[in-house]
Structures are given as structure tokens and as C-alpha cells.
Amino acid sequence: MKTFTYAILLLSGILVVTSCKKNEIESPENGITQDNSSLALAAATNLVSLKITTIAGQPFRTGYADGIGKQALFDHPFGIDLADDGYLYVADAYNNKIRKISLSSNAVTTVNVPNASDGSSISGPYNLRISKDGTLNIIADEPHPVWIVKPDGTVLTPGHAPEARLSPDIERDPSRDFFWMAEVDSKLVNGQISLKAYLKKFFINSSGTIGTSPLTLDVNAIEEPDRSDFDILDFYPGYNGVKYVVINHTKLYKLSSTGVFSRIYKDMDFHEIYNIVSSKDSRTLYLAESGQIKCIADGVHKFLAGPNPTYHDGRDGTGSGADIFADRLALSKDENTLYFSDINTGTIRKMQLR
Q1: Whole-angstrom Cα distance, residue 350 to residue 192?
Q2: What span, in angstroms and rounded, lies between the C-alpha atoms of 97 and 138?
Q3: What is the pLDDT of residue 20?
Q4: CA-CA distance, 248 to 259, in Å (whole number)?
Q5: Beta bridge partners of 255
Q6: For strand 67-68 and strand 107-111, is the pairing parallel, antiparallel, or unpaired?
Q7: Strands 179-189 and 292-297
């Protein structure tokens, strides 16, 4: 199965955290960038404690066990989704399981995923989204990279275009109950690789493969050296009609509501963006970046929490006092809580924003 290798970027000299004030993200060229040292100094007069709490799993103890809080064990929990039924769903990649956590009790249980029509069981699920009717929409490893599991137990495993590289991300459209996927099509044309990129609706098309109603991303807008070889590793459909796209973990682009694809925040130095989510007013972006949690607001790239520079034991706390390695994010509807999977410690955790 596929594996995900991450390098932990330790923070030093940062002892305080800042909050993310909301500002319109549609004007990136007017923003400024501060490094973490500057942020620490700026935060000294505006200290906000963003508490990190582990809600399920034991740090650095892998395994498979249901139970409440620390009684539960995971093995590389990756994608998460906060569903309307009050549960946080987790793609437990190396256990080949889908788990769910009751946010009222922190009780972890395993979701039944029936075998596919060919008798195969799900392998390496690493991202998921839950429809309002309870349908599981899962991105997994081969031989079936897409699993759609209906509430009645019906399992669909549609393929995708043979020349396409399927993004590991699947995201909910904020206006309706459907999801988006991303593809990069690679073809050999006159001895050269031709790349095309799309965002598609996560529906089965007339050919029986996944993906309909493509939105084409202008590859020429992608700056070199990324243009000649790139992947869409994460994206997020904003409430403002803009779709934010991460290219090769390091560059942020947006697809406007009118179809213009362009790079944003050129002056900001990003390191390994794993996941992004947006506030409902689309004025604040939260990022899982190199294991840290950051945000972009007021035109500033701000640090919120990250690996503890001294103690690497998965401890809870605030700011750099918490030892975390954030991967996938889920923002609560009231925007008071940011949930995240911590693939380094093997736990599911939350940050209290308010």
C-alpha cells in the first residue's frame, strides 16, 4: 500500500501563539509575511491560548482497538470528516478500517465496510467524506481507489480515467450535498509529457468511472518548475465560490468563481502544506503545514501550534508547548473547534479556537 512519509520541522524560540483575525483572502497581493520570530514578538501583546487536547488514541502506540479516548488505538489515522450525525469519521489507513468517534463521549467504534463485488476488502483508506444520508465516500489504495458505501450496504468501486492521477483529496461542496475530486491527466504527445488538471464532481459518469462536470485548471498558470511535473495533493472549495488548490505541497492557487486559475500569496514561504480548510466567510484559511497548524488572516501567515521543541511525547498544551504533527483538518460548524489527525503520534486531537 502507499505510505506517507513526513519530516518533522521543529520550532525553536516560539513560546506564544497568535489568533487569526479574519480578513478577506481574495486580496493576497496586499498581504505581508512575517516569520515565526516576528510573530512571537507580535503575539506578546495579544496572547491567546489555543488549547490542544487529544480526544482518541494513545500517543506513539499503534494498534487496533475500539474504546473510549485513550482506550482506542489507531494505525496511521489519516483523513477525517466531521459529519452531520455528530461523529468524527476517521480513515484508519494501516488498519484498513473506517472508524468513527462520538464527540459527546470520545467513544471510538469501527464502521462496517462490506467487501466489493469481487470479494476484495478495502485497503489503505486515506481520505473520506460522509454524505448527509450516511453514504461513505472513500479514497483508498489499489486495486479499488474509490469506494462508495451506501447506508443499505451497497458497495460501488468505480475506476477512474486510466491516464489520470487521482488526487488523495475529496472535498465537500459548501452549497450542496456533493463532493469534488481532483485529477491530473498525463499523456505522451510528440515525445513529450502533456499534463492537464481538473476538479470534477464526485459522481459516476456514463463510462462507469468517477468524475463528472470537469472544471479545467489552466496549467499554463502554474509557475515553473512545477508546471512540467505537478500533482494536486490538496484543495478546498470555499464558501465564496473560490476553490483553493495546493500544487506540490508548496504553492497555493485559486480557481475563481469565473474560472480564472492563478497563484496567490506569492510572498509567503510554505513548507509541505498537507491540508487546508476555510472559515465560512472565506476570510481565514487554516493550514496543516509541516506538522504545524497555521492560518492566513490579515494578510499574514501565522503560527498557531506545532511540535514541541523539547519534548516529543505527544503531549497536549498550547502553541509550541503542544507536541503535535497535524495532518488532516476539520473545522466545526460553529468554527470554535479545529479537529485534526496526528499521523506522527497516531491520535485524533482538537484545537479550541474560541
Answers
A1: 46
A2: 11
A3: 56
A4: 21
A5: 243, 261
A6: antiparallel
A7: unpaired
> Is 272 exposed, middle or buried, given 0-12, 13-18 or 19+ CB atoms closer than 10 A?
middle
Per-residue model confidence (pLDDT) at position 320: 85
pLDDT in tens, 306-328: 898 899 999 999 988 999 999 99
Q: Could you identify the residue written with the cell 483538518?
A: 329
**Which residue, 43, 7, 90, is CA-closest to 307?**
7
Write the secondary structure of the chain as one string of H (helix), E (strand) and C (coil): CCCCCCCCCCCCCCCCCCCCCCCCCCCHHHCCCCCHHHHHHHHCCCCCCCEEEEEECCCCCCCCECEEHHHCECCCEEEEEECCCCEEEEEEHHHCEEEEEECCCCEEEEECCCCCCCCCCCCCCCEEEECCCCCEEEECCCCCCEEEECCCCCEECCECCCCEEEEEEEEECCCCCCEEEEEEEEEEECCEEEEEEEEEEEEECCCCEEEEEEEEECHHHCCCCHHHCCCEEEEEECCCCCEEEEECCCEEEEECCCCCEEEECCCCCCCCEEEEEECCCCCCEEEEECCEEEEEECCEEEEEECCCCCCCCCCCEEHHHCCCCEEEEEECCCCCEEEEEECCCCEEEEEECC
Please name the residues in contact with 162: beta carbons below 8 A apart, sequence gap of 6 or more: none
The CA distance from 97 to 106, in Å, is: 18
Distance between CA atoms of residues 140 and 95, nearest Å: 12
pLDDT tens digits for 240-263? 899 999 999 999 999 999 999 999
- Residue at grid coordinates 481520505: 127
Q: What is the pLDDT of residues 27-44, one digit of tens each?
A: 333 233 333 433 333 333
C-alpha cell at 251: 504553492
